[in-house]
Amino acid sequence: MKNITKILLILMVLVQGCDDLFEPAIQNNRELESGFDEPRFAQGLLIYGYARIPTNNWVFSDMATDNAVSNDESNTFFTLASGQWAPDNNPLNQWDNAYAGIQYMNLMLENVDSVSFTVESPAIDILFADRIKGEAYALRAMFMYYLLQAHGGVSNGELLGGQIFLESLDQNSEFNVPRATFEECMQQLYSDIDNALELLPNDYEDIASDNLVPQKYLARGVNRNDYNRVFGEDARQLISGRITKSIRAQAALMAASPAFSQGNSTTWADAANFAAEVIDLKGGVAGLSPTGVTWYSNVSEISNIGGGVNPPEVMWRNSIGDPSTGLEASHFPPTQFGNGLLNPTQNLVDAFPASNGYPINHPSSNFDPQNPYANRDPRLNHFIVYNGSTAGPNNQVINTTADPLSAGGTNDGINRVEVSTRTGYYMKKLLRQDVNLNPNSVNGQLHVKPRIRYTEIYLIYAEAANEAWGPNGTGPNGYSAYDIIRAIRQRAGIGQANGDAYLESVRNDTDAMRELIRNERRLELCFEGFRFWDLRRWNLSLTEPARGVRIQSGNFQNINVQNRVFANHMTYGPIPLSEVLKFSALSQNTGW
């Protein structure tokens, strides 16, 4: 909030400096009204809103959970998990970012109807205004979701959200207002979603005839070409009705979860039904992408992206950009010229079932502790580099053992050099193995970075439906939690020889199915920024020690790598200390 009184002036200075938008004004600080006849200037408000979308899935907060550790002791998540999380030291802070985004959206909503987007047709101005208002409502709801996720919590015995601002603020505005209840914030979010869905199409696609123009526009003389100009395929990567419905499902899942359900009217059934609206647009259970496990490395899909089209698994994404090597440089093993930053834990490796679908601690799993990576869930090999697996453009076998160099050990071995693994594992998921980091022949590749993947929405439905109606209940929908989880596990290649006997054994047990769904979510979404939030919304402990494996002379020894230091109140994140000090009406979450 500390910057919010300056946002309008800063925006004018920033946009003023863009020579490709318009000639510089005489003064640095332009009046907002001066942009009404310059649509690109006005749309800059919306663009700055998009620029505020958090990139949670690329900050690797899994390194503060039982999924992974960092090999860099200066990493923010290393220190966060070591007891240094505080209101003035919070790498997960969304307060300033969310309120800046909300300010931009409020300015856009207040002024968009005054902007002239065309000179030839007032009707087209209405199309543009409706789309931009729809985007602004949807983005405002999204910022509220991230604000609640990061800062919603209990204060003085009441579950609170953030402050609600529905009008743009300036230096004369009142900032010292109390936080609204979590329920009030959720209702505002739902209201914004409803407003957005009245204005946005499910998808931005060209229509083939005037008969397909919505009646409210057809009555104003809008034809197919006019409609396609505003709502057609050129707008594909903008926030759409489908994406808006997904944000509603994400927020509802959070609100229905144990940590946030106090005094909250959102139910598990609500979350399930919201997710089902999106799943139905995808074709139901059958719409689950068959290539969704390896979405990050499906070369043909990524190489053929064009015209705003997404791979089948990806609903919404960042821009593709140019070929790059940065992700691999951070995470490849040392022998592949990487820094090995994120080290998956033994905890996570143990969560991958046997190939027959049974957990590895189940007597029917046939798990062999002396050959622990054999006959395992295929996703283990896709997502994690373990001893004896391959990595890099030449499919090099990676040796993570503690064996000395004289006995065949390498710098990929546990704790061998500064950038070696601390757990005995390296991250493989998200990385393009065809990236070459050899200084003599560096070769980058295209990367797709999703904002929302469809598998997340399927998992939202499975979790919420199981809680609302049990494993086999469908509510008003045509599929159950069991149906979703069966499809996800079949896609992964689990239980193909035995009909996934373990899943069948728990299909009538809500509690056992809950544990299975949570585990499937852990595996499918690992390293994508979900685990830290999930453990907290489930009211589960953050303090499980991160474990690894030390392999020497063929012997496997589980080791403790890093203890996690979190207090019970850290189920909820803090309000920034600077805000609490400035505004007496702003209460801090309990314990911070």
TrEMBL record:
<dbReference type="InterPro" id="IPR033985">
    <property type="entry name" value="SusD-like_N"/>
</dbReference>
<dbReference type="InterPro" id="IPR012944">
    <property type="entry name" value="SusD_RagB_dom"/>
</dbReference>
<keyword id="KW-0472">Membrane</keyword>
<dbReference type="Pfam" id="PF14322">
    <property type="entry name" value="SusD-like_3"/>
</dbReference>
<dbReference type="Pfam" id="PF07980">
    <property type="entry name" value="SusD_RagB"/>
</dbReference>
<comment type="similarity">
    <text>Belongs to the SusD family.</text>
</comment>
<keyword id="KW-0732">Signal</keyword>
<protein>
    <submittedName>
        <fullName>RagB/SusD family nutrient uptake outer membrane protein</fullName>
    </submittedName>
</protein>
<dbReference type="InterPro" id="IPR011990">
    <property type="entry name" value="TPR-like_helical_dom_sf"/>
</dbReference>
<feature type="domain" description="RagB/SusD">
    <location>
        <begin position="333"/>
        <end position="592"/>
    </location>
</feature>
<feature type="domain" description="SusD-like N-terminal">
    <location>
        <begin position="57"/>
        <end position="206"/>
    </location>
</feature>
<keyword id="KW-0998">Cell outer membrane</keyword>
